[in-house]
Amino acid sequence: MGKARRKDRESSSVCTDEPKLYLEEAFLERKLPDIDLRVLVDLPAGLDYNEWLASHTIAFFDHINLVYGTISEFCTMSGCPDMTGPQLRTYLWFDEKGKKTRVAAPQYIDYVMTFTQKTITDESIFPTKYANEFPSSFESIVRKILRLLFHVLAHVYHCHFREVVLLNLHAHLNCLFAHLTLFDARFRLIDSHETEILHDLVVALKLLDGGGGTAGATVTSASSIIAGNTNTSGGGDDNCTGAGIQSSSGNIGEPTHTSSIATSLSTGISTEHHHETPQQPPPQIASAQ
């Protein structure tokens, strides 16, 4: 009986670009208004830029992990044999030698969550103890994490939004997507070649102003923050090349970092940690530079 139900779930997971259920008016609600999210992404005066990145990165990981956990039983090796997103986008895993690895979506996402968990709990990268400093490469590591987490969101919207709606979690998912979009618009951390595949959703959620930019967002780069100037646009991470995206990660290691943003963003989803230890260890991954 259990196997029969499993087969039904696998066969029901069909990833198609049309119609895009997540663009239908009935499913465009959010749990928080966009004005609250814009206030949420602004760097508070006097707060360290890297600390702000760390808090949000941990929050994004926690919430994306939770949302994916609610539909993970529908994301199977046979139902999702490739890691795909809208516009026929396929994500490939790259090992430290640059070898492309085509893996099923659940395995790819498991690699993403394992890498991110190890990274944010590594005291040498996400420091929590007094006098410990962030590494000079911290922003590039955050860029990599957010890029990979965006891949997970793209896959959920593309292949599993119907299940999200059936669980009545679409408003939570949209709120999470809006938060990541506005945070990226504020600090330019994810390359536009990555995010363009969900641009239609950004428009549908009315996160854009008339000029095509994100409404109300002031772009800020790391260098401008350090210099005390918030009017300079920062560059993106340029690893997206179209249908086969380079999706490499870094290898890193242990301890814990707390996040006040995760609490602020609580959307009513159970706080149970859904990510499980992978059955097979991920391949060695090139470290972020």
TrEMBL record:
Bias (Low complexity): 230-242
Keywords, ordered alphabetically: Metal-binding, Zinc
Residue spans of biased composition, Polar residues class: 244-270
Region (Disordered): 230-289
Composition bias type Pro residues, residue spans: 279-289
Residues that coordinate or bind Zn(2+): 75, 80, 155, 160
Pfam families according to UniProt: Mob1_phocein
Source organism superkingdom: Eukaryota
Record-given protein name: Putative cell cycle-associated protein mob1-1
